[in-house]
Request: fold
Amino acid sequence: MPKIDVRGTELIWNGKYGEDGKLNPVEKPGPYPFQIVEAINKPRTGKEEPHPFLFELWKGEEGDTFEEGWKNKLIWGDNKLVISSLLEKFAGKINLIYIDPPFATGADFKFKIQVGEEAEEITKEHSVIEEKAYRDTWGRGLDSYLQMMYERLILMKELLAENGSIYVHLDWHVGHYVKVMMDEIFGYENFLNEIVWKRYAAHSLSTQRYDAISDHILLYAKNAAYVQLKPQLQQLSSEEMGKRFPHIEKETGRRYQHVALEQTSNIYSKGEVRIIQGKKVVSNVGWRWTQETFDKRLAENPYLIYWTKEGRPRYKIYADEYGGRPLGNVWDDIAYLSAGDSERLAFDTQKPEALLKRIILASSNPGDIVADFFCGSGTTLAVAEKLGRRWIGCDLSRYAIHLTRKRLLDIENSKDLENEGQKYAKKAKPFEILNLGKYERQLWQVKTFTGKGEKQALYEYLSFILKLYGAEPVSGFTYLHGKKGIAFIYVGAVDSPVTIQECLDAIRECKKVGGTELHVLGWEWEMGLNDAIQEVAQNENIRLKLRIIPMDVLDPTAVKRGDIQFFELAHIKTDIKVNRKQVEVELKDFVIPHTDLIPDDVKDKIKKWTDWIDYWAIDFDFRNDTFNNEWTSYRTKKDRQLNLKASHIYEQSGKYKIFVKVIDIFGIDTSQVYEVEVK
Reply:
């Protein structure tokens, strides 16, 4: 092992230093262009010119406030790539980051999904891309985990404003390692607190160790000199309230404690008389209140005074007026979400809104930017929305993005955080769903296949997939990788979704060389791609087939058996009726051709075709740029019904494109564009 020059105290792991003993720099991939996949609660501005691509690119040209045009952002993609790409526009501008990364526990976290109107529950297995995000294991064990966290924390620090702070939510498995790492990254002097969140009481007896009942949240500042926490109060338990306020007022039933009205600190009033409830009382030490204050307070509440047996006055402090005790670093008053909690969605590790409310109120101001780069079910984003903060969220899982989108669309029906017990009753401010354009191929491919370099690894990967598909490799092309009969083949990358742009490039090259048929193979697909790209292919006179690379490809036994099957993406059927300027769209059918890939226990719970659907939405004036969510129907935990009909009235006559998007129970979307003419 090479000699490593370490200055000061730091955490060392395999991969941090190179063979030469020098610190490996953290790469900043990209920046990659963000594509705006969907706009929600954002009205169109005028009649824009048709866009050359199906999705427009985000140029980062926005106002600093909601009023000036800011749109909140939900981003689908690898957070390292996302953060690197955000640096161009947001370095030094994010006020608060909260992350709840994997804990390196070795657990395999899966999603719980409700199916159909009966809400039968199934477990969703991970896709290839989700496996990297949610399977809480790492190739080189702890070394891999620490490297993953190190790279991302370095980049997050650059995003933070000078007065910004970051909360990293962990537990006993790796919290102590990450603490030392963050001391190095942010500086020991910028460590503010280790917060202990008591999730639940101990529930098991063990002769080996005490039950783990808490998580640990590390709080660091970008620069501690500029950070000022806003004091928060902690509510007492009912038992604590009973001890603190032991008396009950017989006239009103209010709980109270009583405290002294006489105090030596006001010695100037020693010997003065106060008339209290008609009684003349002299103090030998001094009075807390003037006579005017006595009169005013008693006029407001005639039961305010408590008289001792000795006939001395004291005043009451009521439990219902008690704000709480000053908050320390042990948070034992916020319960973990139970299985039946109304907040609970699909994630076993979902955090309660009360926890994020406390963090956001303490470390940000209204209008500040709050970010969560492991956003999961979107708790941070929902709370930031309700508290009037701007937000940026990111997740690698398509299903997590879908779940968060639904949560934000339905936020008006969730509980309010300022007036608890009431509904929030407001729609989410405009937000956009984005993803990255073309991902760079990851080192994963190199290691998986040959380790001889990127080009060789890529060749072996393509040859491997093409062979399974029954195709032969071809050379001399940029976007065409193989051929099967008359059809050219494009193979998507292992570690990223197939994008609209990739399909467009492959279609154009296919046409250029005289091809008439193109098959695109992909693990994952950019949201909104599906049938929408068929319009482009038809215009180019290319027969296009989009096929899924099944998970079985990763199983050596399945590969050896030769039973790998590539299935087409799902299809939708609609009925569109036009009556003058009114149009009605009815969803008539939804077909998943690749049902052989779905476990039998899942298929058994599908009673009708609508059970496959979790969400569908319509853009009634699609302009070849961004899907604008103008109408939607989706299932929630409480409301399992889907509205299969949507209507819209156009203001002007003319030809319009209607973009219909259906998202199935696995979070995969299928889209179709229709043309109508209204008069």
